[in-house]
Structure formats: structure tokens, C-alpha cells
Design brief:
This protein is mainly α. The chain contains seven helices and no strands.
Length: 169
């Protein structure tokens, strides 16, 4: 089997594992709003095996920035176009200045996931739902990171200083 096909199959297995983990954890914790956690998990998992661990960490850092920006702009402005645009701008600029632009795409998705709640007209339990979305994004990121490290443990940590495989494992 060629290398590209192996990577695609590996990516499919990682995505299915992430989806299963979200479903199992949501069942264990009786949490029904799983879509945001699944989306965040998939945004952290990378199809490129070589850069997966580094990219996963970069995306999580960026998602944290997106989550914090969302909360900041929801505190100072009513939910809507202006708040979303400012949070998006702040998130992208923060990613740029912190040199984590490869994670900006998932950070922008986190901003939208978190901030759209205020746009649906449902204002009861606004902060509870918003914070649950932030936690869902974080949980999805952690699940994606866990899967990345589990699947890439040997690739990332199994090499010695000289780049050769260690005998442990």
C-alpha cells in the first residue's frame, strides 16, 4: 500500500476514533449537545502525519484565543455582527502576533461556534449555554490532542536525539 493511501486510512481511523470518544464521553456525562465537541475534535486532528502533534498543539492554542476573544466581546457588546467581526479580527491578529497562524482557521471556527448562540434569539440561559459551548470546544480540542498523541506517539516520541528509533516501546 502506498504512503498516501496509508495516511488517508490513518486519518479516517483518527477521525472515527475522535467521533466515538465524543459520543462515549457524552453518554457517560449525559451531555447531549455534542456537535461543537465533535467539530472541535475534527479541527484539531490533522491528515498530515508528519506535523500532526505540533499542529494539534498550535490549533489548541489558537482555539483558546478564539474562545477568550468570544467571551471578551460577548461581555462588552451585544451578540451580533459587530461583536462577531471584532472577535474574528482580534483572534486572527492574536494568532498572527503569537505566530500560530496555522491554527487560525480552527480558532475562527471556535469564535463562530461560541458567538452564534446569542444570534439565535434565545436569551434565556445565555451565559450558561455560552460557557457550555466554550467547554465543548475545549473538550473537543483535548480529545483531538489525545488522539493525535496516541496515534503519533511512536512517530513523535519514539525517536532518539539522533533521529533513530529507540528500542523502547
Amino acid at each position: 500500500m502506498d504512503s498516501e493511501l496509508k495516511n488517508i486510512i490513518f486519518y479516517i481511523v483518527k477521525c472515527i476514533t475522535g467521533c466515538m470518544m465524543v459520543f462515549i464521553l457524552s453518554w457517560l456525562f449525559d451531555y447531549r449537545e455534542i456537535s461543537w465537541a465533535i467539530i472541535s475534535t475534527m479541527l484539531v486532528i490533522s491528515p498530515d502525519s508528519r506535523e500532526a502533534p505540533h499542529l494539534a498543539l498550535t490549533r489548541i492554542k489558537a482555539n483558546i484565543i478564539g474562545g477568550l476573544a468570544s467571551l471578551l466581546f460577548l461581555v462588552i457588546l451585544p451578540p451580533g455582527l459587530i461583536a462577531i467581526c471584532l472577535a474574528l479580527s482580534f483572534t486572527i491578529l492574536s494568532c498572527f502576533f503569537l505566530k500560530i497562524m496555522p491554527g487560525s482557521k480552527s480558532a475562527v471556527a471556535a469564535v463562530i461556534i461560541i458567538m452564534l448562540h446569542g444570534m439565535d434569539g434565545e436569551q434565556s440561559h445565555f451565559w450558561e449555554t455560552t460557557l457550555l459551548r466554550v467547554l465543548s470546544v475545549i473538550a473537543g480540542c483535548v480529545i483531538g490532542l489525545l488522539i493525535t498523541y496516541l496515534f503519533h506517539w511512536k512517530v513523535h516520541f519514539g525517536k532518539s536525539e539522533g533521529g533513530e528509533e529507540s528500542g523502547e516501546g
